[in-house]
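Field notebook, page 281. I keep forgetting to write these up properly, so this time I am using the form the group agreed on. The chain and the ligand, NAP, are recorded exactly as supplied. Prediction of the bound pose follows.
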Amino acid sequence: MTAQLIDGSALSRHLRLEVAQRVTALKLRGISPGLAVVLVGDDPASQVYVRNKVQACQDTGVFSVLEKYDANLSEAALLARVQALNADPAIHGILVQLPLPQHIDAHRVIESISPAKDVDGFHVASAGALMTGTPGFWSCTPYGCIKLIESTGIDLKGKHAVVIGRSNNVGKPMALMLLQKNATVTVCHSATQNLKNHTLQADVVVAAVGKRNTLTADMVKPGAVVIDVGMNRNALGKLCGDVDFEAVKEVAGWITPVPGGVGPMTITMLLVNTLEAAERG
Ligand code: NAP
């Protein structure tokens, strides 16, 4: 059996078209959705990420401001900038690109963002809202994974989902979102004994580890949905995920590729959250 590909690039294009349409409708009501992206320092990967985020805003008609600061910016100055953005009516979403330089307490900075503008979904209030099933912003990468799973048409209700990884940014919110969708959820991590025993029972596996070949074909139940969040480099320096794609696609029912799976969805869900922030007013 060869799995069907879950094309994150195509789904992203489709969702971004919807975003652009909703932006137009909002503008007709006199609201122009705005995202502020704050970058401190010159981390090369972060520079690429913020550029892509700003470009995605431009492509969909979302107003964006990119604030770039020297790596020496003080924590107090950054907190003051976030406060100013919290108070700015033209800005509906605030994203502070991580990692921040070591002298800045990233947690304090994220907590200083107004939860109403926390479109990255990293604020404790957003995490709490997800946990309690109340309105709030879902963090973009796991939210994108939910959209990818739903795009298969498979109803998560009653399905057994196994999440590999329990980070605050991906694994834990992923598990809570799957729970919210009425899946039965198992969370695995580095101390999990016999990972394969768990994954073999899964109708849906989400791998968010950051290690190549964490999920191999012998660990996958035939027909399962496999979502690969991992971003790693293989021996040739090529981008690859946590899943042994070539072998697993012969067993799984559905699978995301890397690149072209989860990756494009993360920025798309940032746009969706920004729009929602603007719609909520
Ligand atoms: P992280 O904070 O390093 O967390 C990795 C998780 O994997 C931890 O919970 C860890 O367990 C678990 N783990 C490590 N080795 C394991 C093993 N052998 N078996 C089972 N679990 C194991 O990483 P992250 O931020 O969640 O990111 C995970 C991957 O997703 C990375 O490759 C990252 O680059 C990628 N990512 C992609 C996107 C995207 O947009 N596509 C966005 C975010 C992240 P412990 O908790 O026990 O240490």
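OBSERVATIONS:
- The first strand starts at residue 4 and ends at 5.
- The chain has a mean pLDDT of 97.
FOLLOW-UP: compare against the apo run.
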